[in-house]
From TrEMBL:
One of its GO terms (biological process) is regulation of glutamine family amino acid metabolic process. Transmembrane segments: none annotated. GO terms for cellular component: cytosol. It holds the Pfam family GlnD_UR_UTase. PANTHER family: BIFUNCTIONAL GLUTAMINE SYNTHETASE ADENYLYLTRANSFERASE_ADENYLYL-REMOVING ENZYME (PTHR30621:SF0), GLUTAMINE SYNTHETASE ADENYLYLTRANSFERASE (PTHR30621). Residues 306-439 form the PII-uridylyltransferase/Glutamine-synthetase adenylyltransferase domain. It comes from the Bacteria. This is Glutamine-synthetase adenylyltransferase. One of its GO terms (molecular function) is [glutamate-ammonia-ligase] adenylyltransferase activity. It comes from Sulfitobacter aestuariivivens.
Length: 940
C-alpha cells in the first residue's frame, strides 16, 4: 500500500491569525516541508491548544507528516497493546499525537469529517481497551475475580464496555466526552461469587475511568461519563447484564432507546457485548411503526431548549451549534426519530452514524433525497465548525464565538472571510431549522426581556477622547472595544467611586500602545475586566506597568495564577525549563523578561487583593529575583564561553547583598550584588579569544549586568547595584576569592562587615558557594569588640541623618526609627556578637542579649520594623517614586489602610508617627552610650 504525505493530501489552508503564536510555531516545525510547515504554523496561530501540542510533539510530527494515516494507526495500535505499567503517561502522549494529526488533517482538508471522527473514535476504543486491562489486571492478580486468571484478560473476564453516543457511532468530536456503559456477564460466575465479582469489576471500572479522565502533568485522555447506565443514582458503575436488561424491559424510556441506536461494544468481552445488544433489540426497535416516538423526541427537544435557554431567533454570537436552533442535535433527532419509527420493521435502517442513517432513510424513501443530502451537507459543515471551536482551547464547547475577534479566528481556521462565514452560518442554521421544524411542527415563544438597570452617567469629555488613543486608532481595536465598552462601563459604574474609576481607567487606556489582543482577551474572559479595573483604580504604578505589558494578563488565565507560591527552587527550575526551549541567547534574555514579568505581576496582584501579606510579598519578590539570577547566570556564562572559553578555575558566584541577600525585596527594588571568582592560579581562559583570568571575570560580570539591565523587546529585568564590592565604584567589578578574603580581613571598613551580615550567595558552582559562605561566617565571627562596632554604627547613623532626611511620613526607609535605622542597629548587634544570621529579628534579639537595648525593646523594634516594611512594600506597589497620598483615589487609600490595618489615612499617619518616634527613642538611647567611641579611619 502506497503512503501519502500530509502535504500531498491537503486541499485547503487555514489562514494565519495570531502573529506571536505563528512565530513560536515556526521554530518548532522548521524541518517540515513547506506546505506542511505552513499548515502547522497557521493552525497553531489560531489555537493555543494546537501550539501547545506542537511544543510537545513537534519531533514526532516531523516523521508522522510523511504518512499521517500510518502514523496515527501506529499510535492507536501501540496504545491498544500497551501493558498496564506506565499506561497513564503513554495514553496521554498518544492522545496528544492523535489530537495534533487529526487537527492538522482536518484544517488542511487532508481528511474528511468521517476520517477525522473515525481516527478519534479508534483511539478512544484503544484507550478504553488498555485502561480496562490496567484496571482489571490487579484485580485478577489479587484473586478478586473469582475463578479468573490472567489468561482471562483477553476478554476481560466477561466485562464489556459499551460506547454510547458519538463514540458508539464512530463520530467523536474533537474535544469530546466519551459516554460509556460498563457491564459484566454474570453467567460466567457461580451465584455465590456474584457479589465478589461485581465488586472487582466496579473497582476496575473506577480505575479505568481515572486513567482516562484524571488530569495529570501530561494532561488527560478523555473526559469519561458513566451516567448513561440504568438509574445511575442508585446502580454501581459496572452492573450485571441481566439487571440492565430487566431495567430496560420495564422502565426504559425513549431517550434510552435513541441512545442505543448508536451503542456498540468497544472494549473487553466484545462477543458478550454483542449478545447483550441483541437482547435489547426489541426494546430499541419496535415491531410496529412507532410514531409515538415523534412526540417523545419533540418533548426532549423542548426540554433541552428550556433547560439551556436556547429558544428565540437564531443569532450568531454564542449560538449553540449542538443544541441551538438549526444545530447538530436537530439533525440527529430528525434522523434518529425516523429510524425509531421504522427501524423495527426494516433492519437496514439500524445504522449508527448520522450521515449513514440519512443515506439509509433516503434509500428506503423515508426522507426525500434532497432533504437527506442537504442535512448531510449541513451536518458536516456544523461539525467542522464545532471541531474548530474545540481546537482553540481543547474545550468541550459547541458555542459560536461571542466576539468579532472570535469570529475572525474561526474564519481563519476555515479559510473564509468573516462576513462570508457568518452569512454561511446563518444560511445553514436557518435551512436545518426549516427542514427539521417542519417535521416536528413545534416552536417555543421567545423568553421575556429582562429589566436592565440604569447606567451611571459618566463625563462625556473623558469618553469622547478615547477614540484618539493609540489602542483605539486601528479599525480592529476600535471594533472590538466598541463591543466591549458597554460591559466595561457597567463594571466601572459598579465601583465605589465610578468617576474616580473612570479617570483611572482613562489613564491606563491612554498609555496602552495597542489594544486588539487585550480587548479580545477581555471580551473572551469578562472576569478579567474586574481585575483590570481594580488594578488601575488602586495602583497607578501597576497600571502603568500593565499598559506597557498587557501580555501579563495571559498568566491570569493559565489556571495556576491564584495557586500556592511554588518557592525559589521550583521557580528556578521552571525558568530553566523555559530557557532550554528558546533557540538562541537573545530569545533566552527576552524569554526571561517575559517570564519574570508575569510572576512579578502575580505577586503585585496578590498583594493588591489582600491574598498575601507584605512580608510574604517581600519574600516572594526575593524568590523571583534569585530564581532569575540562578537561571540566567549559567546562560550568560555559556554564551560568554562560546567566544572566550570556559571560566578559568572554579568559576564565579553572585553574592547577593542588602535586601537581595536578606531575602526581602519590594516591587521596585534594585539588586545589590558582588561577583567573586576563583581562578585557582589559571592565568587565562582557553577559547577562540582567550582572556586573562581577571579580565575574563570582569567582562563576564559586565555581560551579566547587561543581560539584566538592557532594555530589550520585553523590557528590563532589574537594575543592578555593585557599589558594595571592595573599594566600591573604584574597585574591579569582579573580585578574586583571595583578594576578597584579604580585603575583608585587613582593609574593610566596619560598614562593609555590617553589609556581610545580610549577604547570601545566590548563584554559582556549589563548591565555591560553600567556600564563600564559609569565608563570610569566618569574617563575621572574627571577634570585634562591641564598643568598636556600635561606635561605628552610631557614627554611621549620624552621617546618614546629616546627608539625607526622610521625604515625609510615608517614606518608610530613611530616617530615625525607620527601616534603615533599625536594620543598622540589628546588623551592628549581629556583628558585635560574631554571628552570621541574616534576619533582622535575630539581630534585634542579639541586641537585647548583649544589653545594647533593654529587655522587651527588641520586640518593640521588631514590631516597628514590620510596620515600616509593610508601608514600604505597599507604597512601592502604588508608586515607583515618593507617594503622593493626596492623589490617591478611594481604592488606593483603601488598599493602603487595609494593608497596614488602619481604618483611615489619618489614623495610619498617627500610627506611623508614633512607631517611628518609639523606635527612634530606643535607638537614640542604645547608641548614645557608644557615641564618639568609633575608631578613626586609620584604625579600621
Amino acid at each position: 500500500m502506497t503512503t501519502a504525505s500530509l502535504s500531498t493530501l491537503m486541499t485547503r489552508m487555514p489562514r494565519r491569525y495570531h502573529a506571536g503564536r505563528a512565530e513560536d510555531a515556526e521554530a518548532l516545525v522548521a524541518a517540515l516541508d513547506r506546505d506542511a510547515r505552513t499548515l502547522a504554523v497557521n493552525a497553531a496561530s489560531t489555537a493555543p491548544y494546537l501550539l501547545g501540542l506542537l511544543e510537545k510533539e513537534a519531533s514526532w510530527l516531523q516523521q508522522a507528516a510523511e504518512d499521517p494515516h500510518g502514523a496515527v494507526a501506529r499510535v492507536i495500535g501501540t496504545a491498544a497493546a500497551h501493558p498496564p505499567e506506565g499506561i497513564a503517561a503513554h495514553l496521554r502522549q498518544a492522545k496528544r499525537r492523535v489530537a495534533l494529526m487529526t487537527a492538522l488533517a482536518d484544517l488542511g482538508g487532508a481528511w474528511g469529517l468521517e476520517e477525522v471522527t473515525r481516527a478519534l473514535t479508534d483511539f478512544a476504543d484503544a484507550a478504553c481497551q488498555s485502561a480496562l486491562r490496567a484496571g482489571l489486571t490487579p484485580q485478577i492478580r489479587r484473586g478478586k475475580v473469582p475463578g479468573m486468571t490472567e489468561d482471562d484478560l483477553h476478554d476481560a473476564a466477561g466485562m464489556v464496555v459499551l460506547a454510547m453516543g458519538k463514540m458508539g457511532a464512530g463520530e467523536l468530536n474533537y474535544s469530546s466526552d466519551i459516554d460509556l456503559i460498563c457491564l459484566f456477564d454474570e453467567t460466567r460466575f457461580d451465584r455465590d461469587d456474584f457479589h465478589a465479582a461485581r465488586s472487582a469489576f466496579v473497582r476496575a471500572t473506577r480505575t479505568m475511568s481515572g486513567l482516562l479522565n484524571d488530569r495529570t502533568a501530561d494532561g488527560y485522555v478523555f473526559r469519561t461519563d458513566l451516567r448513561l447506565r440504568p438509574d445511575p443514582a442508585v446502580t454501581p458503575v459496572c452492573m450485571a447484564m441481566a439487571a440492565a436488561e430487566n431495567y430496560y424491559e420495564s422502565l426504559g424510556r425513549t431517550w434510552e432507546r435513541a441512545a442505543y441506536i448508536k451503542a456498540r461494544p468497544c472494549a473487553g468481552d466484545l462477543e458478550a457485548g454483542a449478545r447483550f445488544l441483541e437482547t435489547l433489540r426489541p426494546f430499541v426497535w419496535r415491531k410496529h411503526l412507532d410514531f409515538a416516538a415523534i412526540q417523545d423526541a419533540h418533548d426532549m427537544r423542548l426540554a433541552i431548549r428550556e433547560h439551556k435557554g436556547l429558544g428565540g431567533a437564531i443569532t450568531l454570537p454564542g449560538h449553540d451549534m449542538k443544541l441551538g436552533r438549526g444545530g447538530i442535535r436537530e439533525i440527529e433527532f430528525f434522523t434518529q426519530t425516523r429510524q425509531l419509527i421504522s427501524g423495527g420493521r426494516d433492519p437496514d435502517l439500524r445504522v449508527r452514524d448520522t450521515c449513514g442513517g440519512l443515506d439509509a432513510l433516503a434509500e428506503k424513501g423515508w426522507v426525500p433525497s434532497h432533504a437527506a443530502e442537504a442535512l448531510q451537507d449541513h451536518y458536516r459543515a456544523h461539525r467542522m465548525i464545532e471541531h474548530r471551536q474545540q481546537m482553540v482551547q481543547d474545550a468541550q464547547t459547541h458555542l459560536l464565538p461571542q466576539s468579532d475577534a472570535g469570529f475572525d479566528r474561526l474564519a481563519c481556521m476555515v479559510d473564509m472571510d468573516t462576513h462570508d462565514l457568518k452569512a454561511d452560518l446563518r444560511t445553514r442554521l436557518g435551512a436545518v431549522h426549516e427542514i427539521t421544524e417542519g417535521f416536528f411542527a413545534a416552536s417555543r415563544a421567545p423568553a421575556p426581556a429582562r429589566d436592565v438597570p440604569a447606567a451611571h452617567i459618566f463625563d462625556a469629555k473623558v469618553l469622547d477622547r478615547w477614540p484618539s488613543y493609540p489602542a483605539l486608532r486601528s479599525e480592529r481595536g476600535s471594533e472590538i472595544f466598541k463591543r466591549l465598552k458597554p460591559d466595561l462601563l457597567a463594571r466601572l459604574a459598579a465601583a465605589g467611586k465610578p468617576d474616580e474609576a473612570l479617570l483611572a481607567f482613562d489613564g491606563f487606556l491612554a498609555g496602552l500602545p495597542a489594544g486588539v489582543q487585550l480587548f479580545s482577551l477581555l471580551k473572551a474572559n469578562p472576569q478579567l475586566a474586574d481585575l483590570l479595573i481594580d488594578i488601575v483604580s488602586t495602583s497607578p504604578a501597576l497600571a502603568a506597568h500593565l499598559s506597557r505589558n498587557a501580555g501579563v494578563f495571559d498568566a491570569v488565565i493559565g489556571g495556576d495564577f491564584f495557586s500556592d507560591w511554588p518557592g525559589e527552587d521550583a521557580l528556578a527550575a521552571m525558568l530553566q525549563a523555559e530557557l532550554s526551549r528558546e533557540p538562541d541567547y537573545e530569545a533566552r534574555l527576552d524569554g526571561t523578561r517575559r517570564w519574570a514579568r508575569e510572576w512579578h505581576f502575580r505577586i503585585g496582584v496578590h498583594l493588591l487583593r489582600g491574598l498575601i501579606a507584605p512580608e510574604v510579598a517581600g519574600a516572594q519578590y526575593a524568590d523571583l529575583a534569585r530564581s532569575v539570577l540562578r537561571a540566567l547566570w549559567p546562560v550568560v556564562g555559556d554564551q560568554f564561553a562560546t567566544r572566550h572559553g570556559p571560566p578559568p578555575g572554579r568559576g564565579a558566584v553572585l553574592l547577593g547583598m542588602g535586601s537581595l541577600g536578606a531575602g526581602r525585596l519590594n516591587a521596585t527594588s534594585d539588586l545589590d550584588m558582588i561577583v567573586i571568582y576563583d581562578a585557582q592560579g589559571v592565568e587565562s581562559s582557553d577559547g577562540k579569544r582567550p582572556l586573562a583570568a581577571r579580565l575574563y571575570y570582569a567582562r563576564l560580570t559586565q555581560a551579566m549586568i547587561t543581560a539584566m539591565t538592557a532594555p530589550m523587546a520585553q523590557g528590563r529585568l532589574y537594575e543592578i547595584d555593585m557599589r558594595l564590592r571592595p573599594s566600591g565604584n573604584q574597585g574591579p567589578v569582579a573580585t578574586s576569592l583571595g583578594s576578597f578574603e584579604s580585603y575583608q580581613k585587613t582593609q574593610a571598613w566596619v560598614w562593609e562587615h555590617l553589609a556581610l551580615t545580610r549577604a547570601a550567595v545566590v548563584a554559582g558552582p556549589h563548591d565555591l558557594v560553600r567556600d564563600v559562605e564559609q569565608l563570610r561566617r569566618e569574617i563575621l565571627g572574627s571577634g570585634q569588640s562591641r564598643a568598636h562596632v556600635m561606635g561605628e554604627v552610631a557614627a554611621m547613623r549620624a552621617r546618614i541623618a546629616a546627608a539625607k532626611a526622610p521625604e515625609d511620613i510615608w517614606d518608610a526607609k530613611i530616617g530615625p526609627g525607620r527601616l534603615q535605622d533599625i536594620e543598622l542597629l540589628a546588623q551592628g548587634a549581629t556583628l558585635s556578637a560574631g554571628q552570621a544570621d541574616r534576619a533582622i529579628a535575630s539581630g534585634l534579639a542579639l541586641a537585647e542579649a548583649q544589653d545594647i537595648v533593654r529587655s522587651g525593646e527588641a520586640a518593640t523594634l521588631q514590631a516597628a520594623y514590620r510596620l515600616a516594611w509593610a508601608l514600604q512594600c505597599a507604597t512601592r506597589l502604588l508608586s515607583a517614586g515618593p507617594l503622593a497620598v493626596r492623589d490617591l483615589g478611594q481604592a488606593g487609600t483603601a488598599f493602603l489602610c487595609r494593608t497596614l490595618e488602619s481604618d483611615t489615612l489619618a489614623e495610619l499617619e498617627t500610627q506611623m508617627q508614633q512607631s517611628y518616634a518609639q523606635a527612634a527613642g530606643i535607638i537614640d538611647r542604645a547608641l548614645g552610650a557608644y557615641q564618639g567611641r568609633e575608631d578613626s579611619n586609620e584604625e579600621r
